[in-house]
Amino acid sequence: MSATSRKVAVAGIALSDCGRVDGPTPYTLHAQAARRALADSGLERSVVDGFGSAGLGTLAPIEAAEYLGLRPRWVDSTAVGGATWEVMAAHAADAIAAGHANAVLLVYGSTARADIRAGRRTAGLALGGRGPLQFEAPYGHTLIAKYAMAARRHMHEYGTTLEQLAAVAVQARAHAAGNPDAMFRSPVTVDDVLGGPMIADPFTRLHCCIRSDGGCAVLLVAEDYVPDIATAPVWILGTGEYVSHATMSEWEDFTVSPAAVSGRLAFDRAGVRPAEMDIAEIYDAFTYMTLVTLEDLGFCAKGEGGAFVENGRIGPGGALPVNTDGGGLAACHPGMRGLFLLVEAVRQLRGEAGGHQAHRPDGTLPRLAVASGTGGWFCSSGTVVLGRG
User: Does residue 122 carry a pLDDT above 60?
Assistant: First the structure.
């Protein structure tokens, strides 16, 4: 078989300790996740010849690779915010298919919550005041304010309501209730969401992601390794990536995210349609992200996201379970959360999600899933379609 035609499988997945993790460093969480993912795969560390990491150290991912005792011949440090890991998974899959690597380990770890509690960093760090951002930074144009402006525009254009946005948070908590690893598992109501303290109009606190510690790892391998792995393979069927803008003034339409392009590419390359997906794992730093990404991935028409998320459609037992672990709104959000989306998608396809396991209408396990990460303020997107069997 030609190396350039090799299929790519997810062989191992794992979480590090997550939630409230006060003792370990980010390097420790990287190591925990990497060891656990390798153990999950049943493969030895020696097979890993590719490595991807971002957001840690001065020379990411070189420092992380050294800490893990790896000397990879293929490396990636792509950093495009929350979309980083779907984009990096796409790069890794291409490298494996082309024979540039055989087994690529993607690892992330962050102590974002613990660092603030310990005074190692503050909560309101700016993303930068140089380059194009210098024209926005003086006006207090924070990341959350940009998402809030986009949400307000969608409300203006399409009549999307605060109650519909709140329904996203309610259903995320409903998923988290069955996930013992979730940081917040207690149910909330639409009134709870609407009645919380205002953070950035229209977002109250429960419209916004939590801040946690945690890490995870995903091991991608060439199909040649599949007979040796310890679990049933989950295949990478198609990927897509896209970058849109850096400044709000260059964003042509606040109601359209870059997932409109990355999603189309991923589904086309996978040869499947959005309607065939059994579950969706979507980056949800804010409730609006979930709603507009569902539109842009093609699960409903533009402007119909509000109606789509009503009546429990994306919650447990809904027609399209979304963010089945509770997502960034309830389970964990230690920073660039995109790798967690891939871990959860694989866990669901394997049928290993326990109390928050999703099923198809006929009671069988999911067969197809999409993971779509968003970076910056809808600046970038990476989408990965996965399938089992």
Answer: no
Looking at residues 204-231, what average pLDDT do you find?
A: 96
**pLDDT the model gives residue 3:** 47
**Nearest C-alpha neighbor of 84 from the set 52, 115, 110:** 52
Whether pTM exceeds 0.85? yes
Reference 325, options 294, 346, 295; nearest CA is 346
Spatial separation of the C-alpha atoms in residues 201 and 208, rounded to whole Å = 11
Q: Is the pLDDT of residue 129 over 80?
A: no
Mean pLDDT value across residues 111-120: 82
Position 257 scores a pLDDT of: 97
Residue 333 and residue 323 in contact, taking contact as beta carbons nearer than 8 Å: no
In whole angstroms, give the CA distance from residue 109 to residue 18: 9
Residue 56 pLDDT > 80: yes
Residue 147 near residue 284 (C-beta atoms within 8 A): no
- The 3-class secondary structure across the chain, one letter per residue, is CCHHHCCEEEEEEEECCCECCCCCCHHHHHHHHHHHHHHHHCCCHHHCCEEECCCCCCCCCHHHHHHCCCCCCEEECCCECECHHHHHHHHHHHHHHHCCCCEEEEEEEECHHHHHHCCCCCCCCCCCCCHHHHHCHHHCCCHHHHHHHHHHHHHHHHCCCHHHHHHHHHHHHHHHCCCCCCCCCCCCCHHHHHCCCEEECCEEHHHECCCCEEEEEEEEEEHHHHHHCCCCCEEEEEEEEEECCCCHHHCCCCCCCCHHHHHHHHHHHHCCCHHHCCEEEECCCEHHHHHHHHHHHCCCCCCCHHHHCCCCCCCCCCCCCECCCCHHHHCCCCCCCHHHHHHHHHHHHHCCCHHHCCCCCCCCCCCEEEEEEEECCCCEEEEEEEEEC
